[in-house]
Specification:
The chain is of the alpha/beta class and about 400 residues long. It contains eleven helices and 16 strands. The protein folds into two domains: about 25-55 and about 305-395, Aspartate Aminotransferase, domain 1, CATH 3.90.1150.10; about 55-295, Type I PLP-dependent aspartate aminotransferase-like (Major domain) (Aspartate Aminotransferase, domain 2). It has helices at about 45-50, 55-70, 80-90, 105-120, 140-145, 170-175, 200-215, 285-295, 300-320, 345-355, 380-395; strands spanning about 25-30, 30-35, 40, 95-100, 130, 165, 180-185, 190, 195-200, 215-220, 245-250, 260-265, 330, 335-340, 355-360, 370. The chain binds pyridoxal-5'-phosphate.
Length: about 400
């Protein structure tokens, strides 16, 4: 560890975000190792992506077996993993049909298209989709317009019209925006990038009832909150509701590019020519998806996510009390600690740069820290992470 740090020459990599002068070279469960041999306790996991941690053996096996068998027959043909994963997802949800994509944004684009198509067929061309302040749905032109980040709907103008914004957990604010053109309401059951803000049960159930009564579709974006993250296979299951459309991303691939658009039979109205994509349902990625979902559904697994979420919550609450912070919130293993001042960014850097072992966390708002560890993180690692936090908070407060 006393060797001088190796420098990183990344001049040919397009600049899109500041990155620290290091490269990640290896991962195992909840730990990452960089090019200098330094280890990091990873509570980011590729942005809530690696739900089974780094280098999960089941995923590696699925990749190896499928790579030797068939990587890509083209989307013009069915393949076995595509069908098996579709069945697995529909058998464990209220949806009947699945379209696989490569990213969350692409799945959400598909959801927007499907809702608009349904509006053309069943609602005289209604096309508006009500979304929410502070929501995040992706970085394509349409999903940026759908997102509730200030300025995102015009950043690359002209962008896609038809996404009025309501306030989360305020049903009246939704009702006020409804017009003849309204075809759907789209929301994250727990806003992730917005700062880990759960939707209340009262709001979600009220929204489902209201949308049903008014012939409006309900779309849940579970790219971040789905696939076991909140302690249930799908986050909307906490609310005892059945949406019409759901999108999955991140966790469904456990780290590989895989996403899904799911819909009920009543809503799945694409006809040939409407939807596609070169890699949709390719067997290499869907084989990994099968391994991921089967591991999430293994007896006791989701229960253990809920128990670990409870442990993390309790630990964060005691940290909050010890340091006079503003509490914590979240669901399962998607949680945030609310700070008393805007020191989130500083803490993220200090955590990463500490020695001998770093800690990877994230600050989606300046006064907030977000935690999205592997769903199989150990209790010890949760306590270790919290003790590092205590150490850092002593340093800065
Ligand atoms: C990350 C995220 C997306 C976008 O997913 P990509 O795979 O980055 O395109 C969409 N919705 C939510 C809720 C997300 O957290």
């Amino acid at each position: 560890m006393n060797k001088p740090a190796q420098s990183v020459d990344a001049h040919s990599v397009m600049f899109i975000t500041p990155r620290p002068e290091l490269m990640m070279v290896e991962g195992k469960c909840s730990w990452l190792t960089d090019n200098n041999g330094k280890r990091y306790l990873d509570f980011l996991q590729g942005w809530a992506v690696n739900c089974l941690g780094h280098s999960n053996p089941g995923m590696i096996e699925a990749l190896n077996v499928q790579a030797k068998k068939l990587i890509n027959p083209s989307p013009a043909f069915y393949n076995e993993p595509m069908i098996r994963l579709s069945n697995l997802l529909t058998n464990n949800s209220c949806f009947n049909k699945v379209f696989f994509a490569n990213s969350g944004a692409e799945a959400n684009e598909g959801a927007i298209k499907l809702a608009r198509k349904w509006g053309q067929l069943h609602k005289s061309g209604a096309f508006e989709i009500i979304t929410f302040d502070h929501s995040f749905h992706g970085r394509t032109l349409a999903t940026m317009s759908a997102s509730g980040k200030p300025g995102w709907d015009t950043m690359f103008a002209p962008q896609v019209a038809g996404f009025p914004k309501a306030e989360l957990n305020d049903l009246e604010s939704v009702k006020k925006l409804v017009t003849e053109q309204t075809v759907a309401v789209m929301l994250e059951p727990v806003q992730g990038e917005g700062g880990v803000i759960p939707t209340t049960k009262e709001f979600m159930q009220g929204l489902r009832q209201f949308t049903r009564e008014n012939n409006i579709l309900l779309i849940v974006d579970e790219v971040q909150a789905g696939c076991g993250r909140t302690g249930k296979l799908f986050a909307h299951q906490h609310y005892d509701i059945e949406p019409d459309i759901m999108t999955l991303g991140k966790g469904i691939g456990g780290g590989v590019p895989l996403a899904a658009l799911m819909a009920t039979d009543a809503v799945a109205c694409f006809v040939p020519g409407d939807q596609g994509g070169t890699y949709n349902g390719n067997p290499l990625m869907t084989a990994v998806g099968i391994s991921v979902i089967e591991q999430l559904l293994a007896p006791g697994f989701l229960e253990s996510v809920r128990a670990k979420g409870e442990l993390l919550s309790q630990e964060l609450l005691s940290i909050s009390a010890e340091f006079n912070l503003q509490g914590e919130r979240g669901e399962g293993l998607l949680r945030a600690l609310i700070l008393s001042s805007d020191i989130g960014g500083k803490l993220v850097e200090l955590a990463r740069d500490r020695n001998p072992e770093g800690l990877l966390i994230n600050s989606p708002r300046p006064n907030l820290l977000r935690f999205m560890p592997a769903l199989n993180v150990s209790d010890d690692e949760i306590r270790q992470m919290c003790n590092i936090l205590r150490e850092l908070l002593k340093e800065v407060t």
